[in-house]
Amino acid sequence: MGLFSTLSPQAASQLDVIVSGLYSTGFVVLDHVFDDNYLTCLLKELIDLNPQEFKPAGIGREDAYQKNKFVRNDRIHWLDGDESFLSSYLTWAESLRLAVNRRLFLGLYEYECMFAHYPEGAFYKRHIDAFKTGINRRLSTVLYLNPQWGPQDGGELVMYAPDSNRITHQILPTMGRLVVFLSEEFPHEVLPAKRARYSLTGWYRINEGHHPAF
Ligand SMILES: O=C(O)CCC(=O)C(=O)O
Ligand SMILES: [Fe+2]
After folding, report:
1. ipTM of this model?
2. For residue 118, which atom of ligand 1 is closest to its CA?
3. Domain 3-159+181-205, CATH
């Protein structure tokens, strides 16, 4: 049984929307990709994780700029991929990887993801997830897990036009909202959250060691 047999027709057409949006603007925001029960389950798993296992963001896998607590002060928990609650999400992530590779030839190879917790007041200053010369991230995903989040709660994701100070979008991190964008193109920042803000964030990487024959 192929992977797509596990996707609903609605999920398959959402993948088309994402791929088309990436093709035309490099950036997509979608609601209702995952059902409410599953989102609630993800949020519960996230909240149940031992707070000791959340590390200040930037430790380990990123550059010095991103380790600076004046740049970001969220807390993150890398996921191994073998957590049972993640399997539906990872099935979806794999189907997106295949759809993107098939239509956009990005050569996405693997996906890594983490839970992020922005405590009250936390932020992440303007940055780019990958520089063309640096880490091999090509596509960023953020799935927000914040029930009843409104404008009064802050924590917007602010997206800038490539190489510009022009703001193109201010996105509230509402429950189930998904943002997908090309990692190398769009500077973005997270405004201070006025209450705890949760997300499942991930990146597709290319395989550094892999040199295609053609
Ligand atoms: O949570 C968000 O809205 C974006 C987070 C982000 O930019 C990152 O973790 O690189
Ligand atoms: Fe980012």
Report:
1. 0.99
2. 1
3. 2.60.120.620
